[in-house]
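Retro notes
What went well: the complex prediction finally ran end to end.
Inputs used:
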Amino acid sequence: MNTNDPRFELIRRSRDAEASSEELAQLESLLREDAEFRQFYVRYINLDVAMGAVAKTVPMLETPMTPARPRRTGWLSWRPLAAAAAIVLLGILAIVWQQRGVDVEVVQTSEGISGDWVMGSKVRLNHVTLVRGSVQMRLTSGVMLDVTAPVEMQMVDAMHVRVLSGRVSADVGEKGKGFVIETPQARVVDLGTRFGVDASDAAQTSVLVFQGQVEVYEKCSAQRVALLNTGEGLSLDNNRRASRIVSVSGSDGANAWTANATAMPRALILSVRDNMAASDEAAKQWPSLRNFYSIVPGGLRDGAIAFSDEADEWSNVPASLVGADQVRTFAVDGFNWFMKLTLEVSSPAELFVFVDQRNPVPEWVRADFTDTGETITLNFKPPQWHGRVAKQLPYSVWKRIVRTPGEVTLGAPYENPPADKKSFNPNRMFGIAAKALP
Amino acid sequence: MEHEESLRVFVRSLLLSHDEEREVMQEVAVVLWRKFDAGMDSQAFCRWAFGVARMEALAFRRDRARDRHTFGEEVFELLGQTVLEQSDTLEAERRALGTCLQKLPEEQRLLVQAAYAPGVKIDNLAAQLGRTAMALYKTLHRIRLTLMDCTRRVLASEELT
């Protein structure tokens, strides 16, 4: 079979959703009965998949393609700005305005930002330097950007931003899929998501996915480093080394997160780490682990997201725990019997773990914690299409007093691997919270 | 994820749709992590991962895309075997693709970039270029066939040297 074979047209029609049900049946018949055809089919699909990956790694188009007939572009209809290339100083905010720029709507500003930055106003930006404060802006692609000082960035177009330094979060809607953030080390391509990029450290870029999926590419070689899903993150340094970000502090909602534990000295829990670091045996067996723990100071309340990688929420939070510091573990860890967590506690605290009631309480919980007799509810929200149903799972609340600041080690949800995995009904991962000792 | 590209090709070969493949691959990754057995060697992991991908693709079609044609179990099995048996060749062809894309005429190379850019809809791109979607689909198909021939030639020449 060579590429002139008319059966390739059948593959194309099937791939491009043009095939009739008869043609699809014919394709299936060929795949079942003709080994050579099957090989060429797989080669065609392989090429199709690889073209998607390669096309995203090459530089953006510099030469516009020639349309078959001339048509007006958005650029032609833009009114020139009278003050092109003027530098406007707005108190603490310095922006270079240019005729070639990107239209944005100012959605929200922090206190102290004034001048033309009126909420709801439209401005055109090219190079942005934010010295202090924060700005939330919406691009014409629908992408919402949260920019927190200090930051320096270039607006390339409504689907492309270069972060030269600083921290930016993006909430990308349906229209904004494919939105790109470039940093000195990485090129992050969004696949429909909410994510954050931190290029504050000149030597590395941190990428965190709060919801959805992004692809991370090396800036220089344009090689894909990783496909990151909800609750996953990595740092990429100048030597092209990618490393897992183990814990993140702060709320992801308002670009207030940081991967730097010392940036939040008032948090009760400064950091979380586990025994899946690169040097550990477990990490060698699962090298692509990218999940991070989220520390959210004061974050526990009804409706608080429970895990960094799922949509599950806590409800029926006991009154005494509302406003406690929360650690979002990752739910995929619920099947784990070998992981150990280490919390770095900054000051004397009451430490709580929430344990799924459906299976026996792990021995380390019984040994180190006491049962408060209270419960908290996990609203389990599986992906809708996956055939699983939402349900409410009661968790028991266990407490331990930590009088001396330092490290506290927690165990895994199970002591041992289950003997019979097929009939095993797994827990969800446990939750963690902390309150300052009165 | 180990064997990620092979799994992706396998899932795409079952579903044919890029968007569906992406959704299923996300779920596959989660299941693999949740049920990963640290005692498995690479081959056992690979067999198991392909089994998970097959089940997730079936579940997706059952739950989310009932109106779409679904291949029978036998074809699922055969496609999995084919991808695994050819995995070295497929990987070599993916490596050769970069060279072959550079050999394309500029107009075709730019078209590939534009058509495969994230989030691009062929209908919209065709309208921008003043062409019909069907004409664009056919052009891209011809480019894929050209690239298939090219990658095979590149691999053949590597074997000779």
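What we learned: Chain A touches chain B through 70 residues (CB under 8 Å).
What to try next: split runs per interface for comparison.
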